[in-house]
Design goal:
Blueprint: E1 8-11, E2 33-35, E3 41-44, E4 48-51, E5 59-61, H1 66-73, E6 79-86, E7 98-104, E8 124-129, E9 132-139, E10 144-150, E11 160-168, E12 171-176, E13 179-185, E14 200-202, E15 219-226, H2 232-241, E16 253-255, E17 261-264, E18 273-281, E19 289-295, E20 301-304, E21 307-308, E22 315-317, E23 324-330, E24 354-364, E25 367-371, E26 375-382, E27 389-390, E28 395-401, E29 404-410, E30 414-415, E31 425-430, E32 435-437, E33 470-475, H3 477-485, E34 488-490, E35 498-507, H4 515-525, E36 540-549, H5 557-569, H6 578-611, H7 620-647
Parallel strand pairs: 17-26
Antiparallel strand pairs: 1-15, 2-5, 3-4, 4-15, 5-14, 6-11, 6-15, 7-8, 7-14, 8-9, 9-10, 11-12, 12-13, 16-18, 18-23, 19-22, 19-24, 20-21, 20-23, 24-25, 24-26, 27-30, 28-29, 31-33, 31-35, 32-34, 35-36
């Protein structure tokens, strides 16, 4: 009959760091046996782990026993424990002291216990007392500490001994060297009632104030846990099988980078971004895992615990029972970004990628036992729109040839270097007196069609850029200077100074393009997700600059005045200025006055003219007759008017 297989087993010889991990086919319920002080232990190829120079230290499970308790709860407290140990016997004249070998529970062990006070710092214990082994546990039925000494078997100095404890319900059987030494003991350690947050401890600590207890001076070779009650034949098979050559469980480590972390370009540097780095151990063992930083970010910096991380220097411990840890990323200056990576023309900006590399390693006493493949963690820094600026070169020089003025402009340059032409801006150019036009060579850079039907907005683009008081269009910032370079001014009015006003609106909302319009243009060029890789807008920026157009008095002013008059008569209702409004108010007022004068005066004149000879003024008698006829007609008209009023 083959020996049953434990669900959790630690084989501590021959010496290898992985022996401190459970070699089973399932995920470990207990985890790794971690030393509280690695320098306090020594390992012998044949006798296993032992205390080095008998210092006080402990091998403690990295996981609590909560999962073990739940596992045994479904099996109604049927479990077995098997351990191989090598003991050192005291000299004949020494007083036997309690030496705890392993315990279930936390805290230190003291032999000085009241009989009804429980087991103090542990729940269950296997210990050496002189030449005998002891099994002690907290008895829930009587709320006292049960301590069973197996006096039927005497230990031998430095000879491996096998102890097996098998429970079924409330009964316990004890075996030494595969033979039954105590049968049907009417007490059992109920592991289904283990308190929370307890741990398995090898070489458990002892109470230093207790003169009757001391650390275990022997070696521990193997600890096995079974989730069943073992029969005598099964225990015999376990003993005959011996410790055996338990294979070292291989490690398969995987690093798991987070999704690309998105950071806005103007995020406060004082509030670093947390990035989760780490991985997992896909084998069935649990060992201390670390994150090794292989390369640092291109522009930003990494910090952990307030310390700056460097490549190939920092190894960050992953906390127990977790798969990773948080590191701080501190972004560079506000001028750097990685997304969007395509400008308003669909051209790649070739921006350097912001990322760093790391791997997950398993270490033991400064030795790397296994390592994952390096992975790259990407950081995306999202562009935040900046306000453009104008240079200060604003000048208009007028020259006069044959009585006709002409202008040479020194236009300012629109600067938008912080955003690298990612988005388009609205441009307004206007004058008060004359007319402005753009050259055909640069008109293709100005978009008049994209926004000339914005019925939902307070502004629209003009239909074209020819002979207007106001020209409005949409363009890429770096093209604005090229467009302005071809601007021409006409419609000079002698003695009247004019002003060329240039407004640029950059952003979203108000007098700028709206977000949907920006999105339409971006999707025309890009394959990237517009949600993840679009510019962040903080409202609408407005920058303005002006050029004063000088005035002069010229001879032949009527021609210039006629030109001015014709320019006003060239109606452009979408581009009215203040001068247009004043002109048309005066013009309409004069027309209204003339109309009323003609209406009131002409009927009397016509009436008189019908009765007087056009060639002379007539005789006195004719004039009197004419006057009387006129008065009669006026009286008749008044009578008809009064009659009409009475009818009404």
């Amino acid at each position: 009959m083959s020996a049953p297989k434990p669900f959790e087993q630690f084989t501590l010889t021959p010496c290898h760091p992985l022996r401190l991990a459970a070699s089973t086919n399932n995920e470990s319920l207990i985890g790794l046996l971690q030393p509280t002080d690695a320098s306090s232990f020594a390992c012998d190829e044949s006798t296993g782990f032992q205390l080095n120079s008998h210092q006080i230290a402990t091998l403690r499970s990295s996981k609590t026993l909560d999962a073990l308790r739940e596992h045994l709860l479904a099996r109604q407290n049927e479990w077995s424990l098997s351990t191989w140990v090598t003991a050192q016997l005291p000299l004949g004249d020494e007083i036997p002291m309690l030496q705890p070998i392993l315990t279930f529970g936390s805290g230190s062990v003291s032999r000085l216990l009241q009989s009804d006070a429980g087991c103090g710092g542990y729940f269950m214990m296997v210990a050496q007392l002189g030449a005998h082994l002891v099994f002690a546990f907290d008895d829930y039925s009587t709320h006292s500490c049960r301590m069973i000494r197996m006096g039927q078997y005497d230990l031998q100095h430095n000879v491996p001994v096998s102890l097996t404890i098998s429970t079924s319900g409330s009964m316990t059987n004890l075996f030494i060297q595969g033979k039954l030494v105590m049968e049907n003991v009417p007490f059992a350690a109920d592991l289904t009632r283990l308190p929370s947050n307890q741990s398995l401890q090898l070489f458990p600590q002892v109470d230093t104030a207790d003169a009757t207890s001391q650390p275990f001076q022997g070696s521990i070779m193997q600890v096995s846990l079974f989730d069943e009650s073992l029969t005598s034949k099964q225990v015999q098979g376990i003993f005959e099988e011996g410790i055996g050559e338990a294979a070292v469980v291989p490690l398969y480590l995987e690093a798991h980078p987070s999704d690309a972390v998105m950071i806005e370009q103007d995020a406060p540097i004082s509030k670093p971004t947390l990035i989760w780095v780490g991985g997992s151990n896909t084998s069935t063992v649990t060992l201390p895992l670390f994150v090794d930083i292989e390369s640092i970010p291109t522009k930003g910096e990494l910090y952990s615990g307030g310390a700056k991380l460097l490549a190939d220097v920092n190894s960050l411990p992953i906390p127990v029972n977790t798969t990773g840890l948080w590191v701080e990323y501190r972004r560079p200056s506000e001028t750097y970004f990685t997304k969007p990576s395509v400008n308003a023309y669909g051209e790649s900006l070739d921006l350097p990628e912001e990322s760093f590399q790391y791997r997950v390693v398993a270490q033991w006493e400064q030795r790397v036992l296994a390592a994952s493949k390096p992975v790259t963690q990407t950081v995306e820094i999202q562009n935040v729109n900046h306000a453009p600026t104008w240079t200060n070169i604003n000048e208009a020089i007028m020259t006069i040839a044959d009585g006709i003025p002409s202008y040479n402009f020194s236009f300012p340059t629109l600067m938008d270097e912080a955003d690298l032409d990612l988005n388009r801006v609205r441009v307004d150019i206007s004058v008060q007196q004359g007319r402005i036009s753009l050259q055909n060579e640069s008109l293709h850079l100005a978009d008049f069609d994209f926004c000339n039907m914005r019925s939902f907005s307070a502004w629209q683009c003009t239909k074209d850029g020819m002979s207007r008081k106001r020209i409005s269009f949409v363009a890429v910032p770096s093209d604005v200077s090229t467009i302005l370079a071809g601007l021409a001014y006409k419609g000079f009015v002698p003695g009247n100074e004019d002003t060329l006003v240039m407004d640029v609106y950059d952003g979203v909302g108000d007098q700028c393009l709206d977000g949907h319009e920006h999105e339409i243009w971006r999707n025309k060029w890009r394959q990237e997700s517009s949600f993840k890789f679009s510019t962040v807008f903080r409202g609408c920026y407005h920058v303005q600059t002006k050029i004063t157009i000088p005035s002069t008095n010229l001879s032949g002013g009527n021609q210039s005045g006629s030109s001015s008059w014709l320019s006003y008569m060239n109606l452009d209702f979408k581009n009215f200025g203040s001068a247009d409004v004043v002109f048309w108010i005066v013009f309409l007022a004069v027309c209204y006055c003339l109309f009323n004068c003609m209406r009131d005066c002409c009927p009397n004149c016509l009436a008189r003219g019908a009765r007087v000879d056009p060639d002379n003024h007539g005789s006195e008698e004719q004039r009197q007759d004419s006057d009387q006829a006129i008065k009669a007609e006026i009286k008749e008209d008044s009578s008809r008017q009064n009659g009409a009023e009475e009818l009404v």
